[in-house]
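Contributing new records

If you add data, match the layout below exactly. Sequence lines come first and carry their own label; structure lines follow with theirs. Keep one chain per record. Anything else will be rejected by the validation script.
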Amino acid sequence: MNISSPRKVPEKLLLGPGPTPVEQRVLQALAQPTLGHLDKNFVAIMDETRELLRYVFQTKNELTIAMPGTGSAGMETACVNMIERGDKVIICEHGVFGTRMHDVAERCGAEVVSVTAPMGKPIDPEDVRRAIKANPDAVLVGIVHAETSTGVLQPLDEIASYAHDAGMYMLVDAVTSLGGMEVPVDRLGLDMVYSGSQKCLACPPGLAPVTVSPRATERIKNRKTKVQSWYLDLTMIMRYWGQERFYHHTAPVNMIYALNEALRIIAEEGLENRFARHRRNAEALWAGLEAMGLKLLVDYEYRLPSLTSIVVPEGVDEAMVRRQLMEEYNIEIGAGLGELKGKIIRVGLMGSGSNKKNIELFLVALGNVLRKQGFKSDISSALEAVEEVLA
C-alpha cells in the first residue's frame, strides 16, 4: 500500500440537517489522551456529562446517559427497551423518522397502530386521542418532536396528556431539537426521550443521549423477557453509568470527552439564551428566503428553528443547486427525503452554525445559484429582511 503525505480534510460549512459545525474546543477535547473506560478520571467525566445532559434535557431523571451510536441508536435503544414482543404501540408518522420508528417497533415484535399526517404537517392531537380511545391496551405513544425530514416542530402538550391519562408511556424523538429549543421532559412527564450528538448539541456524530423517567425505568427493570439487543440493553448499561460501574462494553471514551465539552459550551451560553438565538436566527432566515421569492414547506407556527425546508421553485434542479453550493461555496445543505425527494432542500442552523454570518452567506450563495437556473432571486431584499429581523 502506498501512503503518501498525511491526509488533510477540507473544511466545509455544514448547513444541512446534520452533522453541524463543531467548535475547536470540542475537537480539542476529542483529541485528549484516551483513558480506560473504568479509569477514575474518566468516571468523573462521565458523572459530569450526566449532570450536563440532565440540564439540557431539563430533567431530574436518574437514568440520563449517552448511548454509543448516532440518533438512530437512540431510537433503537428506546424501542428495544420499552417494547416486548406482542405489545401494542401507537406510533405517530408525519415524516421519514416517524416511519422509521414504526419500522423499528415492528422489528421489536410490536403490533403498531399508526397515526399519520402529510409530510410538512404536524400530527393532529385529536387523531392521537381517537387512536388511544380505540386501543386502550396500547403501552406507549411514540412521536417525533422535531421531524428532520420536513422541518416540522410537533407540539407535544395535548398528546402527552392524552397518553398519560390512558396510562401509556410517551416515547419521543428529540434528535433535531435537543440543545436548540425546549425539550419538555419533566414539564410534560415524557418517559423515554432520545437525541443525537451531531445536531443542536454541536458535537461530532457518534453518541445518542437518552433520558428515561423513573416510571419507564421500572418498566424496563421488570420486563418479562430480556431486551432483544444485548448491546443496547439498559438493564445492564444503567449499572455501568451508575455507582456500580459494572463492565458492559468499552465506552467511546474520546467521544464522551467531546460531548462533555459541547454540553459545557451550552451551559456557558445558558439554555434560554441558546433557545432564543436559534429562534431569532431562524426567523431571520425565513424572512430572507421569503423576501427572495421562495416558499417554505411548513406553516409558520409549526416551523422548526433548527431546520428549514425550502420548496424548490418550478424549473429548478435541486440536485444541481446542492452541487453548486458545495463546489462553488463549500456549503453543504440537505436534499428532500422520501416523497419530498427532489421537491425541497433542507437548511440547518444548529449550534454555533446558527449565526448571522452563515445566514447572509447562505442567502447570497443560494440566490446566485438560483439565478444561474433562471430563477429571479432578490438577494438585496433578502439581506434587508435579515437585517430587519436581527435589528
